[in-house]
Hints:
This protein has 320 residues and is an alpha+beta fold. It is 37% helix and 25% strand.
Amino acid sequence: MAIQVLTGKAFEYALLLEFYERLKYLTSVTIIDNDPLKNAKKCFESFDETDQSTYRITSSAAVNFLLDIEPRLSHGISEHDTLQLEIVSDQQGQSGDVRDVLLIRSLQNWEIGISAKNNHRAVKHSRLSQSIDFGDKWLGIPCSNEYFEEIESIFSMLESIKKKDKSTKWTSIEDMHQKVYIPILEAFRKELLRLDKENPIIVAERLVNYLIGNQDFYKVIKGKNKIEIQGYNLHGTLNLPFEKVKPKAKIPKLKLPTRLVEVVYENESTTTLKVSLNEGWNISFRIHNASSRVEPSLKFDINLISVPQSLFANHLFIKE
Length: 320
């Protein structure tokens, strides 16, 4: 298992554990026993006691803060109003739900989700290939025939290289950036602009929804001796009061973009496009080969460069 996956799963488990420990004296709370929980626990237990303690201390700081801004975590309608804690399957992410840990009160018809990140800020790792219609998959609007015709020769070339010898490395392709990366990026750039032109307002909004998820959530980013909590309150479901109990801080609603402003190469890069949208959204798309061996697909490492000023972010510093 890749170290990033291992540390991410361990952090999810530590958060779940701290929510349970903190809330079991305040309200009726239960942990949903499923395969993702078992997997996350296994990852957490693969670390030594010192690392486990660091995960728990960091998680504890985040949990204490979230309890202050989400009163429904600690307040139930009655003893039957049980708060369920769940680690969700990675499959959820495929359907546009980026949340890793869910906290659910069925009786209140309420839930919040946490996206747990360990030293990692990428929002998506999406693929491009001859058979992937990114327009349909990301935005619900199919790509044009022109786009597929444009990328066909490049992916066909990669397919034939792989067929000849499966062990061929990417480094063996001369001028790879000029032959592969740039033409694929250019086809992607033109298609994204075309889709936006033909579907004004819709594409900008759906692109952000695809990248950051179609549900409101808190992103909890664990760093060294610190933790950052961001509130992605797109639909207004975060930060709700419980009866007369109000949150101790306000999480403003985020504005989704309505316009794709420009798609340009980042500082004359041959691998990275910068997509600028209105309302303060800026996204970078860095293309790369996911494997050291040649294969007929490429991967995007997608990051939020900037977000609207209204995005709630709180930094907590932790003493060792």
